[in-house]
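pasting for ref. prot 1 ->
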Amino acid sequence: MASTTKTTSKTKSKAKADSVAKRTKRRPAGGAGLTAEQNAESGFRASRTLSENLQKVLVDLIELSLQGKQAHWNVVGRNFRDTHKQLDEVIAAARTFSDTVAERMRALHALPDGRSDTVAETTTLPEFPAGEVSTSDVVDLVTERIEGAVSTCRDVHDAVDEEDPTSADILHAIIESLEQFAWMVSAENRVPAAG
């Protein structure tokens, strides 16, 4: 009887473990999808192209906020406090912008995909280095990533504007703000021009 109880217990444990593994198994990135109209919904709907273009912006903004946090936690060296605080501003902006883009997508019946696997698989931003990073290196690395997010916004802008000028206006605001951040962050490592 004890042997049967142990076997049943092991079988139940294995079945439970298999069930958890099945539910938590990572799936390939799917990207943004589209929803069908329901009830009284009848407004403007994003095309697949518009949805995919906004998705590209979304993942780069999410990645920018995550890499900003990585830098924030691990920056060391001269001007630490100012760099640490300035990174918080970049992170907050990237989070706000990603939320704005995702909510715009939902308003247009598109399904934003901000899952970690999707972001990691589809971002255009290069990986941030592990471990402690000097303030001067962080300034250059973060500037590069901000400019990468801006580049994505600019790359999709014309196609977005052609289909939906309202979404393009959101991209304008993001570009303006991120370009200002790139200037302010990069100024930490600049030297005055001779002249």
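and prot 2 ->
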Amino acid sequence: MTALNRVPSLMVRAGTASALTIAAVGGSVVIPGVASDAAAATLATKALHVAASKKGAPYKYGATGPGRFDCSGLTLYSFKKAGKKLPRTAAQQYNKTHHISSRSRKAGDLVFFHSGSSVYHVGIYAGKGKIWHAPKTGDVVRLQKIWTKSVWYGRVS
């Protein structure tokens, strides 16, 4: 979906050509504050690749990289390298994402593990039911199958 489709009543001028004219000839229109689906996908893909590149990095509580991570430190670091600032903790990150259903999840979305209403862990969805995450003390950043149904999904935009 283009930004034009999302804001049908908006007429943007570029010189003497309207946004509709630009779109009709295959151009693109940038509307401040409206992220395209492609831009969100690129951000998520970059963050996913950054997380995967940290495979084997040791877990350390409170660490935000580049050599050691806790769970939210890995997601913070990965999205920062992709160009987006996230808050520090898993719960704060959940509150800053666009919440989506499990059916809508895509690679690069955040996966939040919760107990009741409390978020206690976060990872980056890699597809096929797996996440990149920094699990716990004594472990390392790794790809792992999601082990519970007590998860929520969030999209960073």
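The radius of gyration is 18 Å.
Strands lie at 13-14, 17-18, 98-100, 110-115, 118-127, 130-133, 142-145, 151-155.
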